[in-house]
Fold Glutaminase.
Amino acid sequence: MISHVDGYLEHIMAVCCDNRSGAVADYIPELTRVDPEGYGLSLCMHDGHIYSRGDAGTKFTIQSVSKPLTYAFALTRLGFAETDDKIGVEPSGEAFNQVSVDDRRRPKNPMINAGAILAASLLLPPVRDIGPGLVDTVFEEVTAFYSACAGRRLSLDVDVWHSEAATGARNRAIAYMLDSFGVIDSDPEAALDLYLRQCSLQVTTDDLAVIGATFANGGANPRTGRQVLAPEVAQRVLSVMTTCGMYDGAGDWVTSVGLPAKSGVGGGILAILPGQLGIGVYSPRLDQHGNSARGIETCRHLSTDLGLHMF
Ligand code: DON
């Protein structure tokens, strides 16, 4: 039987599916292989119940939606003082792939590529010439952390990872630029590799919704009952997502949708109502900021219709 919520989600999707604006990301060749019409929507409530419609079971790569997770893992491992010494918490007002650093040459925040590559580097030992074997070990820990947030084991899209690695000149440049600033203590190639692998983990909108509900719930996964991260880490990550999660579209997003969120060029958006629920949306056509165009419209409707705006 279809519940009121399911019926409402179907209604929203019917309203937004005419939005065919934007284009699928093509700067990573493997990402062009997706169905541009793909559209999924999931909500995970604080009791762990999931409502999902459309292509909610379709796997896509998490891409930049990984950034809050790796930031949370770095905060958990290193603590606030050490992490804050390396990565700022100020919006950059620039595109995700700009080398936006502050006067201490720290990346301005962990939601842009520079900050995310640095966050990945913090998970690696502070030595040069780290081989792929050690990156394998750390990537397994990262995957285990993401999987605990999602409540199921996530896996790598090897083709996307290789495609990103082969065409990742921009990210390689960012890693080496940070290295030249003296802010990466680890090996820049290993940090880049770890970042590209985390971006290539596959998720569904159900996964994003559960990850969101885990953060909404002070770090306790509502489906498994496991405390995956500390409440103060969840609070910090949600704060930074609110101001920096949608890049240079962040101000427009916060005023119109009013929720902490993170987008990825795979077409996913994770949005969170603290204390209440997680939202996962998937639609791969992107706007000029690299955010899912239909996903943004969907979140606007959800926020307005259900009164989710935090302010
Ligand atoms: O760094 C990159 O190019 C990608 N792997 C991730 C970028 C991304 O998802 C930006 N988000 N909208």
